Batch of 2 targets.
Target 1
Amino acid sequence: MERSARGGVLVLGGGFAGGYVAKLLGRHGATVVSPESFMLYTPLLPEAASGTLEPRHVVVPLRVMCRHAEVVLGRAAAHDVEGRRVEIHAGEDVHWLAYEHLVVALGAVVRTLPIPGLARYGLGFKSLSDAIHLRNHVLRRLEAAAAAADEARRRRELTFVFVGAGYAGVEALAELSDLVRDALRYYPTLRHERQHWVLVDAAPKILSEIPARLGEYAAAQLARRGVDIRVATTLEEVGEQAVRLSDGDVLPTSTLVWTAGVRPSPLLAELGLPVDERGLVPVDETLRVDGLERVWALGDCARVPNRATPEHPDPPTCQHALRQARRLAKNIRGEARPYRYRMLGQVATLGRHRGIADVLGLRVRGFPGWFVTRSYHLYQLPLLSRKLRVVADWTVALFFKRDIVELGSLGERRPLGDG
Ligand SMILES: Cc1cc2nc3c(=O)[nH]c(=O)nc-3n(C[C@H](O)[C@H](O)[C@H](O)COP(=O)(O)OP(=O)(O)OC[C@H]3O[C@@H](n4cnc5c(N)ncnc54)[C@H](O)[C@@H]3O)c2cc1C
């Protein structure tokens, strides 16, 4: 079966880049193909993992966000470049969608390394289900520690190792250590047990993408609360009950979280798109894919030149994906103009009302940094209803103790008649 994309525009991927292109095309219309029905606001994922925010509040339903677009829940599987159509797998259905303009916004996948045991035992932190899984996993460790008969087992369950000290790793560790600290109040037998949080990175410092002084502040904050920071160190091996690091240490643990970077979707080459040595789709400054007319790419899957920073292409961030989407929506509707965007700044939270922000040259840290970070995310989050829900969650968190319920088994189907 074959049909045409709405308005002639087919958008592959409903993440930051694809979701915003479809939204900004407005009444022009588009068909968005996405395996999920929502756009995930990734900067708030650590707070969803720690339970400060309700997980549903950090996602935006695509059908609400992109009112005039058709949303197809499925995956792009093949591309007929000559025939200008893409094969879509949607549940049991397989069909072709013809396009006049194709927007490739397939994002990135977790970048793993051939480290023994990593694929089997490592936990990812990229999707909403990763965040929910990690929260449940961490809370289960507390139950296991409380039930443990010996000290060594308790210590193992209360050791949490994060590999990758970029934004995702630092924020996830900070938020989850807050969750554990709060939850331990309800475990009288564990109250005096030492938690061991370890942050490992191959680089010589953490958060190497932000100005040095803010990075040093973040490292000092984490160290002050007992986080064991191991820079210039790599993960060598992962087992069910321990990890081995390049500094020779073997750490007994049941938790290894891998946040050491992403790589462009491997599907790009399979779709017949050109890719560079890093797997990114090269585009010109109007975001048009090199050598393909009316095919565009943006976001984490593309190498996007930026007129404002001619010395390097855009980094993979939400704010760049959003600005690229704004330019691309205009380029599809009218005359194609070059993309140009100067970064406003960078922000990150460090848990416990602490954060760092470098916005428009203004560098703030501690409580003001945390406040600026939250305000920025609130401003960026699409839909008023989502903003209000997030504000409500934050307000509740100010006055009430954290919810430590673990609902890991509830999403699974129970056999009929099983109680
Ligand atoms: C934990 C975490 C925290 C982050 N924090 C920040 C932050 O604080 N600030 C910041 O600026 N950036 C942050 N980022 C980076 C930011 O999320 C990305 O740069 C941004 O999401 C890129 O948008 P994208 O649309 O290119 O990719 P994505 O948002 O990943 O979207 C890609 C989409 O393609 C879909 N897809 C995949 N395969 C198919 C297929 N076969 N067919 C159709 N669709 C498909 C995916 O389901 C997904 O919806 C963070 C990332 C992570 C993982």
Target 2
Amino acid sequence: MGWQDYLDREQERFVAELKDFVRIPSVSAKPENIPDVMRAAEWVRDRLTAAGAEHAEVLPTAGHPVVCADWLHAGADKPTILIYGHFDVQPAEPFELWSSPPFEPEVRDGKLWGRGASDDKGGMFIPILAAEAMLKTSGRLPVNVRFFFEGQEEIGSPDLPPFVAANTDRLTADMIFSSDGLQWAPGMPQLVLGLKGLVSLEIILRGPRGDQHSGLYGGGIANPAMALAQVLASLKSTDGTITVEGFYDDVIPLSDADRAAIARVPYDEAEFLAETGAPAPFGEPGYTTRERLWARPTLDVNGLTSGWQGAGTKTVHPAEARAKITCRLVAAQSPEKIFEAIRAHVEAHLPPGVTAEVARLPGRADPFLVPAGHNASATAAAVLEEVYGTAPFQTRVGGSIPVMTTLLDTLGVHAVMFGFSHGDENLHAPDEFFRLDAFRTGQTAYCRLMERLGSG
Ligand SMILES: [Zn+2]
């Protein structure tokens, strides 16, 4: 029997096991669920062992545990791949908005409903089952495989960077695949090639010691609120180009091939505007809206505070004015360099009569971009095309996924997102579900991925 037949024969059992997994309320954000996150880790460890993986272990961090396992008998001439995923889930509140209880999973309409079914319990179970099918039918895998599953992704993986740095011997690999990922739509695969980085800061302009009477002092001293408006206006031209000196210096320009790949992805401007209610698209000239969303850096004011904001009039001359700002960065911009560029810009464009403080705020991420010609991505694309019968869209995401940059920084490998969830599956919301046909497709895809990587 081949792995395909094994997967077909065992599918009912796999779905029943996924339900057992979803029944564990491994909510990493809630202290009362700490024992449940541990229970989920132990479930994963035992399931890896049952699949035929070796050295399956629950390992401690300063917070929730991780689970590692491996199967390293394919031979030194075969690549070693690391498969990542997470067994913690988002809180399920508000419970009353669920059609069936979040931790009592149910199958309805070919979907498994329950918290974590899609993000990422169904996703991370897929490569375990693919490995099991190959090990139980042929006694071996075509490549060397390491498994690395964590229990704190939904709270930002705070203890992961030190764990990865201290355990490189368990994690070193030629390629990394993340099971925590989305396909574009049912039947339409995608390969996510880029994620944006982030830098967060606050500009604080100060004038008089305290708020003053605008009739007694107005006209005699500078107004920090007006000065802040002038400083903010100097950060961008009216057409949307960021005018901070050096801001774009490290941006890797879009190639013609990049732009063609982005243009191939379905895009409906009316639908895009309807999502936000904005009257018109706006942004840096010379780029399509989608290019700006995915592949160009941004600078946004997130909040503005100064003076009197209550009802009616107060004739106040404010003492200070503040603006919170975040920039979404693209490869190869550095959050630290961009912060310094903005600080220097504010100092250079400060109107007279006020002082400026530019402070970093929490919230930092490096951008991520899979380099052109990346071997693991090319293989993943070929497998997706084979399994779906259509070439994957090459997409990017405006947000960031910290674990992708942690793995890149420490292990020096660009992880490829190879997951089989979809954006409409109510991830992080009530009525989360996972499509069982994608669960099955993913198992085939991981088997073919290992076969392709092992035959090279
Ligand atoms: Zn996830």
